[in-house]
Amino acid sequence: MAKVNEELITEFVEQMNLCGTRISEGSITVDFPALCRLVSKNQKTAIHVIELFCIMAQRNPAYFQGALSVASAYRIEFNDSSLVAMVQNQAVAAGAEEWLERITILK
Q1: Tell me: the pLDDT tens digits for 70-101?
Q2: Which of 26, 29, 72, 74 has the fewest Cβ atoms nearer than 10 Å?
Q3: Under a CB-based contact definition with an 8 Å cutoff, are residues 35 and 75 in contact?
Q4: How far is it, in rounded angstroms, from Cα 29 to Cα 21?
Q5: How far, in Å, CA of 47 to CA of 74, rounded?
Q6: Contact at 8 Å (CB) between 97 and 91?
Q7: Beta partners for 93?
Q8: pLDDT tens digits, residue range 6-30?
């Protein structure tokens, strides 16, 4: 498996952004099956993106939404909910859990 670097993270985020479509101001719909395929093909990079988004969310809590989306796809693809729990815990610790309530992810 390839070592994760800035180029791989940038490429992953670009591909991730292609999975979303703005439907109104502040609202995006995500092609979740496409996001799951991206995560499945890029397991290590997905983990790093989740961690990076959680760090960035300390300044802009909207990043928790992206982190939760990728973590949810990871949970589905790898049957591992630890990253979802990490994102939720960090959002609560930052007092930003309302940002997670603004999105709907498959349970």
Answers
A1: 999 999 999 999 999 999 999 999 999 888 88
A2: 26
A3: no
A4: 5
A5: 8
A6: yes
A7: none
A8: 999 999 999 999 998 877 766 677 8
Rounded Cα gap, residues 40 and 37, in angstroms: 5
Instruction: Write the single-letter amino acid at 10.
Output: T
Distance CA 66, CA 72 (A): 10
**Contact predicate 67/89, CB 8 Å:** no
* Structure tokens belonging to residue 80: 């591992």
Integer Cα distance of 96 and 59 in angstroms: 11
* Residue 106 vs residues 3, 33, 74, 88: alpha-carbon distances, Å: 30, 11, 12, 15
CA distances, 57 to each of 1, 14, 31, 70 (Å): 28, 18, 22, 14
